Amino acid sequence: MTELTELTVAEIRDGVAGGAFKAVEVAEAFNANVAAAQAALNAFIVTTPYKAIEAAARVDADRAAGKALGKLAGVPIGMKDLFATKGVQTTAASHILEGFTPEYESTVSRNLWNAGAGMLGKLNLDQFAMGSSNETSAFGNVVSPWRRWDGDTAPLAPGGSSGGSSAAVSARLCPAATGTDTGGSIRQPAAFTGISGIKPTYGRCSRWGIVAFASSLDQAGPMARTVRDCAIMLEAMAGFDPKDATSLDLPVPAWEAGLNPDLRGKKVGVPREYRLDGMDGEVAASWDQGIAWLKDAGAEVVEISLPHTRYALPTYYIIAPAEASSNLARYDGVRYGLRDLPDGANLQEMYAATRAAGFGAEVKRRILIGTYVLSAGFYDAYYTQAQKVRTLIARDFEKAFEQCDVILVPTTPSAAFALGEKSADPLEMYLNDVFSVPASLAGLPAMSVPAGLNGQGLPLGLQVIGRPFDEQGVLNAGLAIESRAAFHAKPEKWW
Amino acid sequence: MSVDTATVAKIASLARLKVTDADLAAMVPELNGILAWVEQLGEVDVTGVEPMTAVIPNTLRLRDDVVNADPLTGGGIRDAVLANAPAAEHGFFGVPKVIE
User: Fold this and answer.
1) In A75, A148, A172, B14, which residue has its Cα 20 to 30 A from B99's Cα atom?
2) Which residues 17-46 of chain B have a CB within 8 Å of chain A?
3) Which domain range does residue B20 map to?
4) pLDDT tens profile A315-345
5) Beta strands in A390-453 (DSSP E)
6) What is the CATH number of domain A1-495?
C-alpha cells in the first residue's frame, strides 16, 4: 500500500472520497509520525491525536452515509498555535498565554474543520510570531528536519515565525499546515524547508481569533508541499467574515479549478532593486533559473523598478512594533493568561510584573521600540514618516503592475542558517526578511515555491508577488515554476 | 536620535514592563542600534505623500443593530468570558485593591 504520509492533500482528499483508504487510517499514520518526531524536532506545542481521529471518523461516517464531503475531507493538518482553538491550549508560543484555553474557535480554523480537515496538534512558532528562526518560542526551538550534505549535524533553523508548520510539513508530520505572515512568516520558513506557502491578499482570510501581532499586516495562509495543495487549502480558509473589520467582502474564487501553468500572454516583472550587492551566488543563480522557467512557460520577462525597496525593512520595523505594542497591551494579568502578583503589589505593579515574567526578550524589545516610536514628540518623526514611506512602497508596486502581471524575486537572501547563528544580533536577524517584507507592506498576495537545492543540499525558494486579489496569477506562476523545478527532494530521516 | 538609560526606563514604564538595571544596560545599545538603522527613513522625500491608512481599499461596515446577531460576539456568556481569568470572583475579574 502507498505510504499514506507521503501523499499530498489532493491525493488524500481524492483517496478518501474514492474509497482507496479510510480517513481514520490517514489520521493514524500522521499521528504516528507526529509522535515519533516530537522529541527531535519539537514542531508541536501540544498534539491532539484524538482530534485528528474524531474528525476523520466523522468523514468516514459521512462517506458511508453517502453525504457530500468537504474540500478537505479526511485531511489531517497542523494548526499554528496562533489560532484560537476551542478547548485546546493556545499560547502564541508565549509563557504569558500558557494554559490559556479558548472558549471559541478562530474563523479560519472553523472554516477548515467545516471543510472536513482534522487537527493533529498546535504547531510551535516564534513567540507572538516575532522572529525568523523559531528561536523566540517559550516552548523551545523547532529544529529543521533538513541537514547539510557535508555531514555537519548542526541543527538548522526551520525559518520563522511559522517554523513548526514548515518543519512539520517537510518532515511529513502533516500534509499541510496553517501559517500566518506579517513580514514573511509563511514564505521564509517555506523556502527554508523546501515546501510551498502562500500569503493571500490582506483581508482574504479573517483575522478573527488569530492572536494579533501587527494588525495591518497579519494574514493567514496555507503551507503545503504543492501549489495545488495550497490552492485547495486557501479556498477552505478564505472568505468574508463580518467579525473582522478588514475582511474582504468578496467571493472566494475556485483557485484549484483555475490552476493553469501556461503563462503565454503574461508578463513577469524582475525588479532591479532586489539584485543586491554581494548577493549569495546560488540565490542569484536560482533567481535566473526561475526567470528562464517562466520564459519557458510562455511569459514575457520585463525589467521593472521598485525604487523604495531598500526602505521597506526599516519601515516594517517601525510599523510592526508600533502595532504590536498596542495589540500586546491586552496582556495584563487580569482577563486571561499569566498573572504575577508580588506581595503587596498594586494594580500597576501587577501589570508590570506580569508582563516582565510572561514576555520573552524579543517581544519586550519590540514592545519598547513600538512604545518609543508612538510616544509624544517622536510619533511624527518615526511612525507617520514610516506610514508615508509605506504609501510610496505600495505605489511602487502599483506602477510596476502597469507593466507586468506578476513579479518574480528570491524568497530569502540565503538558505537556512544554523540555530544560534543570527540570534545574538537582532538587526542581522531582521535583515533575513529583506525580500518578503515589501509585499507585506503593500498587502499583496505572495507565494514561495521550492526552486532547488544549494551546494550544501539545502532548499532555496522563489517568490511570486501578484496584484491585489490575484492569488490565481500567483498560484499559476508558482505552478509553472513547480512543474519545471521538479523539486522532489525531502529531508533524509534522522529523527 | 538615541536613547539613554533614563529614556528606556521611561518607555518601559509606559509599556508596563518591569525591568532591572541589568536589563536596562543590555537594552540601551540594542535599541540604539535599531533606532539608528530605522533613521534612514528620514532621507526619503515624502512631500505631499499621505500616510497609509488602509493597505487594501475597503469600506468600514456597520453591523446590523441587532442584539446577539452573531452569538460568538454576543452577550450573556459571562462564565465563558471569565473562564480563563487568573482570579475570577463573584462573576467579576479580581484585581488588587485600586481604591482605599
Assistant:
1) B14
2) 17-19, 27, 30-31, 33-35, 37-42, 44, 46
3) 5-43
4) 999 999 999 999 999 999 999 999 999 999 9
5) 406-410, 446-453
6) 3.90.1300.10
